[in-house]
Amino acid sequence: MPATIEPIEFHGQPALRLATASGARAVVALHGAQVLSWAPPGGEERLYLSPKAVFDGHSAVRGGIPVCFPQFADLGPLPAHGFARNRRWSLTTERSGKDFALAGLTLADDEATRALWPYAFSAELSILIEDSRLDLELEITNTGDEAFEFTAALHTYLAVREVEESRIEGLHGFSYRDKTDADRIQRDSGDALVIESETDRVYHEVSRPLLLREYHRSLGVNADGFPDVVVWNPWIERSAAIADLPDDGFRRMLCIEAAAARQPVRVQPGESWWGRQTLVAL
């Protein structure tokens, strides 16, 4: 049986369900082009979606993989994480075969985006599921007549059994900006990063794949085109203060995000930039 891509409603909002013959599946909302669910063959969910997430077609959805563009976090004058995650994207590409399903969604500038960020652009997010792999590729094209700069991220919320028992391997030796310590630049010297308190780090120029280890499973995380890696967990006090996250939500999630955050990306008229994040269930 070939893979399928079908329109559905998810919490009352338009979405797509991708499924392969091997049992991989994903749900992608048109609001924000946001992947809300991904399970490799075997059916175990690998993305965290808050049970208190708001699905009103306007607000950012807590969990899954929000697209941050044209601003990451508060690194600029726009609302945090930009506007792409709060906009309705259009389905423009559907391809499937026996072992894969691919959907492409696009967003272009309009009067509302130009009121916030006065540039002409086209953004495309391609979502591919294949066997135990999820690929997301974000391409930004400058469709105007002047250069622009942006920061961006794929704000990936990974589902974990217990965050305290999870280990991120592969960050040894890389420098990072620690938002929980007055943005001080530090160097990671441990064999693995273990989350034991609030964590908000932007690792710079990460050049090798990462591995998230849990009790009984692992997840490979690789980025191409995105130079930075963000690791975030709000921990106890911050989690309790976030309205759309349960008080104990921090225990079930860990964000490992492909990002272009340290240095803005500059795109000339008529040119494009792309970045990719790949998750592989092991």
From TrEMBL:
Classification via InterPro entries: Aldose_1/G6P_1-epimerase, G6P_1-epimerase, Gal_mutarotase_sf_dom, GH-type_carb-bd
Active site (catalytic residues): 155, 257
Entry's EC annotation: 5.1.3.15
Broadest EC class assigned to this enzyme: isomerase
Catalytic activity: alpha-D-glucose 6-phosphate = beta-D-glucose 6-phosphate
Record's keyword terms, sorted: Isomerase
GO cellular component: cytoplasm
An example Gene Ontology biological process: carbohydrate metabolic process
Molecular function terms from GO: carbohydrate binding; glucose-6-phosphate 1-epimerase activity
UniProt-listed Pfam families: Aldose_epim (PF01263)
Gene3D superfamilies xrefs: 2.70.98.10
Family: Belongs to the glucose-6-phosphate 1-epimerase family.
The protein's name in its UniProt record: Putative glucose-6-phosphate 1-epimerase
